[in-house]
Amino acid sequence: MLSYLHGYHAGNFADLHKHLALWLILAHLRKKKKPFCVIDTHAGSGWYDLGSEQAAKTGEWHGGIGAALAGKDAPEMLQQYMDHVSRFDPLAHGRDYGVRDTDEYAGPFYPGSPFIVREMMRDEDELVLMELHPRENETLYHRVKRDPRIHLHKRDGYEGLVAMMPPAIRRGLVLMDPSYDVKQDYQKAANAIQQAWDKWPTGTFMLWYPILEDGFDADLRKSIGAIKAQGGVLCAELAAEHGGAKGRMRGAGLLVINPPWQFDQDLDVIGSWLAKTCKLPGPGHHTIRWLVPAE
């Protein structure tokens, strides 16, 4: 199904948790001069206007990035990311960021994963994006087409990931964050990650998933936890105890294969602050645990 549009949810607490984890991994990859690649299997439209009709309909960003920007005593690592977001202004870049004179923008703006990666890349790094939704793909194309480091594919992210393994640059990250608007996505995600890791066992893989009252996240953790990666498999969750109505998201999790050194400690500090600061369906908490210990 291709009904999901991320613009309704951009910048909410789950998005923020995922993007901060992405930021930490990118900061680690930048520490070495060797080039890195990032493969984003469900890329969306690249960046989002939080003043748009979509974002205004849910208002979710107010409890995520909005609450974080207004929060106090943020950890230094998180503050660096929020400074980056507060400065993010695609209008200043014009056509290089796909801004079109025919469109109207309200702002503020929030970068999706493609533009978080784009602004952390160096000249020798590469970003591979996949987006199957026709409208999202078209929008993303206009926003990244002027950057030769970025390669966009209109294809299924599950199939495309496995087909592209291993990447030419053998140092980097796979980010997979499907919409899970059909329950089959849980198994598709698990199968694709397993097959991709089989072909690229030294890569870092990060899989995002929602935590629902009636969700399938336990099966997903079990499947990914069966991957015996040398660098381990880490599970990090930001959630409330209860999510209210059936089908409502009460939290979100990340499964990270081969995370960087000290990533677990850094993310736990950030996640604990988010749990106290952001708006979740109820009192929030952040948990970190190793499903497979690093060797």
Q: Which helices and strands occur, and which strands form pairs?
A:
Elements: H1 13-29, E1 37-40, E2 47-49, H2 53-58, H3 65-70, H4 76-87, H5 90-93, E3 109-111, H6 113-118, E4 126-130, H7 134-144, E5 150-153, H8 157-163, E6 172-176, H9 184-199, E7 204-212, H10 217-224, E8 233-240, E9 249-257, H11 263-277, E10 284-292
Helix pairs in contact: 1-11, 8-9, 9-10
Number of helices: 11
Identify the CATH class: Alpha Beta
Task: Give the strand line-up of the largest sheet.
Answer: 5-4-1-6-7-9-8-10
Alpha-beta classification? alpha/beta
Helix content: 25-40%
- The gyration radius over C-alpha positions equals 18 Å
The low-pLDDT segments are none
Mean pLDDT: 93
| CATH H level, superfamily name | Vaccinia Virus protein VP39
Distance between the termini: 39 Å
- How much strand? 15-25%
Tell me the overall shape.
globular
| Sheet of most strands | 8 strands, mixed
The sequence of SSEs as H and E is HEEHHHHEHEHEHEHEHEEHE
Do you know the CATH topology?
Rossmann fold
Q: How many structural domains are formed by the residues?
A: 1
Task: Walk me through what this model shows.
- The protein has helices at residues 13-29, 53-58, 65-70, 76-87, 90-93, 113-118, 134-144, 157-163, 184-199, 217-224, 263-277, and strands spanning 37-40, 47-49, 109-111, 126-130, 150-153, 172-176, 204-212, 233-240, 249-257, 284-292.
- It is α/β, with parallel strands linked by helices.
- It has a single domain (6-283), classed as Rossmann fold.
- α1 runs antiparallel to α11 and α9 (184-199) packs parallel to α10 (217-224).
- It starts with 12 loop residues before the first helix and ends with a strand.
